[in-house]
Design goal:
heterodimer; A: alpha+beta; Alpha-Beta Plaits; B: alpha/beta; about 35% helix
Chain lengths: ~325, ~230
């Protein structure tokens, strides 16, 4: 056990020393890793910001179902209960005619003329069911349920309706954010592959530069892990440095955006929210970046050393 | 200690017409023996040593060293085998960017020996090969004979039971060659089995040890207290 710890310490030490000796060789690998990890970090923060923007808009959207005067309270409540059971539905509020009138009066408390007109007649406000969906994309499922002949028969003409007429706009926003997410994911994958290939190449060159030393180590009985270990440590250092640099770059970008642009949002991207998300989740994001950097570094150097440091006898 | 039973090694495939480098060689070396293997270039000396260090596999035959049956040896266990055998090469194979001390210590570092133990052991071994006081020199600052003695120190620092020396005097002048041979004799007296390959007739004749002569991949003679007769 003690020997294993000593060996592990030596592997790490050799990796650090080799990294410092070959820092020029590693510059390209670190640079492309910084680009990759910066895209990863930006994608994560942008995704959180888009999700927040959509959630805010979604929260203001509901589906309103207006019931005919012939529909009884029992029928209305029953329909509301059935809607509540739909998986797409977040919340349901049933207002009978009296409650709907009260709500209308509350909403229009400042408009005495309108209130007078309402009170003069025999309550024209229909019983209403307000439905909030979880996901805007699922709103059609709710609509399909409400427009079945049995359910439609309980409603007045023009029901169900969406509050506001922003569905089309929201659909566009949702579509745009989905496209941006996909672009983010594809960019991350493409850059991660480029990054892995460059690290692979760097390690291959490092192995070539040290081929005599490696041969001597083998002849002296060094284990394969003792020979491979320092190369992997070297790549892990690339990953850690690139992770720290990517966090620094994103942080600087937020500082620059909020001070020099003096803007709180860039289209869908809410800079204010993104900045606070970055601050609140700083440690998690930093850990995530370091972990991704280590994974990319370890995986590519492990493949490179496995390929070029095979222990084979003829 | 070393047992080879009808070992052959050929590099050609099938009936390629290329003569085998080693052809059904059988050899038995007792513990603490000092055996010299002689033969002209291409006789199969280097192939024999490469088989012993498992740099290469035999085409047929059995090899057992220090109780380890090579047929049962997996690739992953080769490092463990090499730790039990000390090897000295004609071209020294020292690490040029490490000092004498570091080169010798390197053999201990790769097997996880502590720094304290390394500091204790390496000077003793450098003393055995008469390199005391040259610990901090770089290999380029040493003569050929001194470099070869560093290589010997590195080979014996883990106290192997077998030391294989492949033409260790090949690149040295007579004086330095004798320095190296004296060190090998000293190590043999301490109980290490030594297998030495050489071209040097004078050394073979003066040592008066067991001499195995290889010719065209076969053992032409195997005599105790013998002289060079290629």
């Amino acid at each position: 056990m003690k020997r294993k710890l000593i060996t592990l310490g030596r592997i790490i030490h050799t990796g650090v020393v080799n990294f410092m000796r070959n820092v020029t060789l590693g510059v390209a690998a670190i640079a492309v890793m910084i680009v990759t990890l910066t895209i990863v970090l930006f994608s994560v923060i942008a995704n959180a910001s888009f999700t927040n923007t959509i959630a805010q808009i979604t929260d203001k959207i509901d589906v309103s179902v207006f019931l005919t005067d012939q529909t009884t309270d029992v029928q209305g409540q029953k329909l509301a209960d059935a809607v509540k059971k739909l998986p797409e539905v977040k919340s349901v509020q049933y207002l009978n005619k009296a409650a709907a009138l009260k709500a209308y009066e509350r909403q229009n408390a400042g408009n005495a003329q309108l209130l007078a007109a309402i009170s003069a007649t025999n309550n024209p406000i229909p019983a209403t069911i307000h439905i909030k969906p979880y996901d805007l994309n699922k709103i059609n499922d709710i609509k399909n349920f409400l427009t079945t002949p049995n359910n439609q028969a309980l409603q007045i003409k023009g029901s169900p309706s969406y509050s506001g007429s922003r569905k089309a706009v929201i659909d566009k926003i949702t579509h745009a954010t989905n496209v941006l997410r996909e672009i983010g994911i594809i960019s991350v994958i493409v850059f991660a592959i480029i990054c892995a290939l460059i690290i692979f190449n760097t390690i291959q060159m490092a192995i070539f530069n040290r081929r005599d030393e490696i041969q001597i180590m083998r002849l002296l009985g060094a284990s394969t892990s003792y020979i491979r270990g320092p190369f992997i440590v070297e790549s892990v250092i690339y990953g850690i440095l690139a992770a720290l640099a990517s966090v620094f770059i994103i942080n600087s970008a937020f500082v620059a955006a909020s001070s020099s642009l003096q803007a709180t949002s860039l289209g869908l991207f809410d800079i204010g929210y993104a900045n606070s998300y970055f601050d609140q989740h700083f440690l998690e994001l930093l850990a995530m970046q370091v972990a991704i950097g280590i994974i990319i570094g370890t995986a590519s150097s492990a493949i490179a050393t496995r390929r070029y440091l095979k222990f084979r006898t003829k | 200690m070393i047992l080879l039973d009808r070992v052959s090694k050929s590099y050609g495939k099938g009936n390629s017409g290329i003569a085998p480098s080693l052809d059904r060689i059988s050899l038995h070396v007792e513990p603490k023996e000092f055996v010299i293997v002689v033969g002209q270039s291409g006789a199969g000396k280097t192939t024999l040593l490469k088989l012993l260090t498992r740099e290469e596999r035999p085409t047929s035959g059995k090899i057992i060293i220090g109780g380890i049956d090579y047929d049962k040896l997996k690739d992953k266990d080769i490092p463990l085998l090499r730790r039990k055998i000390g090897v000295v090469f004609q071209d020294f194979k020292l690490l040029p960017n490490k000092t004498v001390f570091e080169n010798v210590a390197f053999a201990l570092e790769i097997v996880g020996v502590s720094n304290k133990e390394i500091k204790h052991t390496v000077p003793k071994v450098l003393d055995i090969v008469n390199l005391k006081g040259k610990e901090d020199r770089m290999p380029r600052e040493l003569s050929g004979g001194e470099r070869q003695r560093v290589a010997i120190a590195r080979a014996i620092v883990r106290q192997p039971r077998i030391l294989i020396a492949d033409e260790p005097t090949g690149n040295l002048d007579p004086k330095h060659a004798w320095d190296v041979i004296k060190v090998l004799e000293k190590i043999n007296r301490y109980g290490t089995t030594v297998l030495l390959t050489t071209h040097n007739q004078e050394i073979v004749n003066k040592l008066k040890r067991r001499v195995v002569t290889l010719q065209h991949g076969k053992i032409a003679s195997d005599k105790a207290n013998a002289e060079y007769e290629v």
